[in-house]
Amino acid sequence: MEEAEKKAPSVTDRYYTRWYKTDMKGKPCEDHCILQHSNRICVITLAESHPILQNGRKIKSINYRISDGCSRLNNKVSGKSKRGGQFLTEFAPLCRITCTDNIEYTIFSCIRGRLLEVNEDILKQPDLLLEKPSTEGYIAVILPKLEESKSITNGLLTRQQYEEVVSKRTAQQPKPCRDQP
Question: Which residues, 6+ apart, have CB-to-CB distance to 58 below 8 Å?
């Protein structure tokens, strides 16, 4: 038996569909990954090609405070229908991550929906974001509206489309993404 066949798929690979949003807000290589569960819940993570995950970068700080009047840490959700969660548009900032080279990256929601939670664990252990970006190092969890749950993937790329974008980038760019601020 081949080694790949022996290894069972991870929980993430088994229960979530990966969607991608590349070059967020026109910034080259700032790619996000949206893990969509069959129950509509979406987990926002960094795509493997995001500059934060490249070139041995280290994280200096993660800040969920978006403005003076808005902190994602103040998000309070209650009840079965998840009332009270902040409503986000697809370009709503979730957090700002500053690397030790002082380059700051804004992480966006990528989809419309209600913010269920942010990952406070990455505030205490920023290396989770680097080491396990699609599991314990996730950024936030968002629940799209029921009527929009089928259409949220419009404008997002499949895994195959994402890999094509990344390979085209690698072939075309004299300066790889990981070296760009």
Answer: 99, 100, 130
CA dihedral 117, 41, 37, 42 (to 10 degrees): -60
**Residue 45: which CATH number?**
2.40.50.100
Categorise residue 156: left if φ over 0, alpha if ψ from -120 to 50, beta otherwise.
beta
Question: Rounded to 5 degrees, what are φ and ψ at 170?
Answer: -60, -40
> How long a stretch of residues is the chain?
181
Residue 69 lies in a domain: yes
Residue 181 lies in a domain: no
Q: Report CA 139 to chain centroid distance, whole Å.
A: 6
pLDDT score at 181: 47
If one compares 4 and 114, the residue with the highest pLDDT of the two is: 114
The whole domain housing 12 covers 3-175
Contact assessment for residue 134 and residue 141, using Cβ atoms and an 8 Å cutoff:
no
Tens of pLDDT, residue by residue over 24-44, are 888 888 999 999 998 889 999
What is the total count of domains within the chain?
Answer: 1
Number of H helices, E strands in the chain: 5, 11
> Which residues fall within 8 angstroms of residue 17, CB to CB, at 6 or more apart?
35, 36
pTM for this model (two decimals): 0.86
Distance CA 137, CA 140 (A): 9
